Amino acid sequence: MLDGKVVVVTGAGRGIGRDIALMMAKSGGRVIVNDLGGAADGAGADATPAQEVVDEIKAAGGEAVANFGNVAKAEDAQAMYQQAMDEFGAIDVVVNNAGILRDVIFHKMTEEDWDSVIAVHLKGSFNMAHAVAAQFKMQASGCFINFTSTSGLIGNFGQANYSAAKMGIVGLSKSLALDMARFNVRSNCIAPFAWSRLIGTIPAKTDAEKARVERIKEMTPAKIAPLCVALADPTSDVTGQIFGVRNNEIFLFSQPRPIRSAHRSEGWTPETVRDHALPAMKSDFYPLERSGDIFTWDPV
């Protein structure tokens, strides 16, 4: 599918990113394996994970090089683009997978908790897209695969920073799809369900939460990779969409559209909004649900 195409995968040293990098290479892609090698909260750095993935790809007969940059830094993202051009003479696909977690209930969340998560997820996705956008425009081709989460799409406890970043990525991905469609550049989002070291940091206190964690453990990161490769296929025309992958299920998510309206020819006052508009719409209000309330069935 990807014979000779050059793919950058961020956060590719472990988990979902690792399996994406491996399958991209198996499908013929030449891969820049990026990973800072930090802890789940972003602290520290270790070149080992990215290099191990590169070694695994090469041992299987593929082509790959390691990159240890921090996507939160624009200069590191630019260096990734330059490395792809220097090593392989091209860049065709960017997979914005890198992420960290700083989970904490909102009233205890610090500004640093907020800034660090936004920087890696949202600004990191922007940095990578911005670094390659001019090249994609010039060659009239390219593909962005961005990672969102049901924590943003639906909601979750203790993840205001992560949820906001992941919903921001949805808007970024759609804007990339709209702005760059004229240059034959595509952009899509994936919300993955898969066990990873990041998921492992989420506290599970109740029996229901512990049971949900056990279900997630059954969903291996390798299940996410086939959709990524299919979206990266240069013959694909899919763009501007939000997908989910849960074990052997692939979902297409809805996108916000008006579902009800209320009208008064004379206009609205605060009182008529309270007494007419809000009651008229109330039957269609969304409850305060989180991801686990929606995806209640066992993975298949």
UniProtKB/TrEMBL annotation:
Pfam families: adh_short
SMART domains: PKS_KR
InterPro entries registered for this protein in UniProt: KR_dom (IPR057326), NAD(P)-bd_dom_sf (IPR036291), Peroxisomal_Beta-Oxidation (IPR051687), Sc_DH/Rdtase_CS (IPR020904), SDR_fam (IPR002347)
Cross-referenced PROSITE patterns: ADH_SHORT
Annotated ranges, domain Ketoreductase: 5-201
Family per similarity comment: Belongs to the short-chain dehydrogenases/reductases (SDR) family.
Protein name: 3-hydroxyacyl-CoA dehydrogenase
Taxonomic lineage from the root: Bacteria, Pseudomonadati, Pseudomonadota, Alphaproteobacteria, Rhodobacterales
